[in-house]
């Protein structure tokens, strides 16, 4: 994947609270172009595979239960410096520590249900994007 791209998921809490459109608007206002997008319900198996990096962490089971509690919106976003700029836009993993104006500050309730995911490196963005999208689903 090109280095000016990142991967995101709008998480089940945000979808259930009716924030999907508002969050996508924030993303576009910040200058990101959506180059792929789909809504899907993750199976337990798919969630475990996506989050295998966290499988030894104490919060792993809660994370899987939460991420399979309802549909997610997966998307690939394009912008110069996409990975770092998107991490800044979404804010700290823990919404209580997220800066004013960030997506997690505005739309997340807790570190578990934190509204949105953003890849932490170009390498992981490519891996995560390939997990959710075939090449012909990406603009
Ligand atoms: P994210 O970085 O998108 O992917 C892993 C998720 O695990 C993270 O968001 C949080 O929602 C969740 N999580 C729950 N507890 C923790 C914790 N103590 N540290 C990091 N992530 C956590």
Plain-language structure description:
The protein has 139 residues and is an alpha+beta fold. It has a single domain, classed as Nucleoside diphosphate kinase-like domain (Alpha-Beta Plaits). It is 40% helix and 17% strand. The protein has seven helices and four strands. The protein has a four-stranded antiparallel β-sheet. The model has no long low-confidence stretch (mean pLDDT 97). The structure holds adenosine-3',5'-cyclic-monophosphate. The site of adenosine-3',5'-cyclic-monophosphate has 8 residues, from loops.
Taking strands numbered 1, 2, ... along the chain, how are they ordered across the largest sheet?
Answer: 2-3-1-4
Gross morphology:
globular
Strand content: 15-25%
Ions, cofactors and other ligands present here are:
adenosine-3',5'-cyclic-monophosphate
Q: Mean pLDDT, rounded to whole units?
A: 97
CATH superfamily: Nucleoside diphosphate kinase-like domain
CATH topology category name: Alpha-Beta Plaits
Rg calculated over all Cα atoms: 14 Å
How many domains, in number, for the residues?
A: 1
Distance between the termini: 12 Å
Regarding CATH, which class? Alpha Beta
The SSE order reads EHHEHHEHHEH
Number of strands: 4
* Number of contiguous helices: 7
- CATH architecture classification: 2-Layer Sandwich
Major β-sheet profile = 4 strands, antiparallel
Helix percentage: 25-40%
Low-confidence sequence ranges: none
What class do helices, strands and sheet pairing give? alpha+beta
């Amino acid at each position: 994947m090109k280095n000016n791209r990142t991967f995101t998921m709008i998480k089940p809490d945000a979808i259930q609270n009716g924030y999907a459109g508002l969050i996508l608007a924030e993303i576009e206002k910040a200058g990101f172009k959506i180059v792929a997008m789909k809504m899907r319900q993750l199976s337990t198996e798919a969630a475990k595979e996506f989050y295998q990096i966290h499988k030894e962490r104490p919060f792993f089971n809660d994370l899987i239960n939460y991420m399979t509690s309802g549909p997610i919106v997966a998307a690939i976003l394009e912008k110069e410096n996409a990975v770092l700029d998107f991490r800044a836009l979404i804010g700290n993993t823990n919404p209580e520590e997220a800066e004013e104006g960030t997506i997690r500050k505005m739309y997340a309730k807790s570190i578990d249900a934190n509204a949105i995911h953003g890849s932490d490196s170009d390498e992981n963005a490519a891996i995560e994007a390939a997990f959710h999208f075939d090449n012909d689903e990406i603009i």
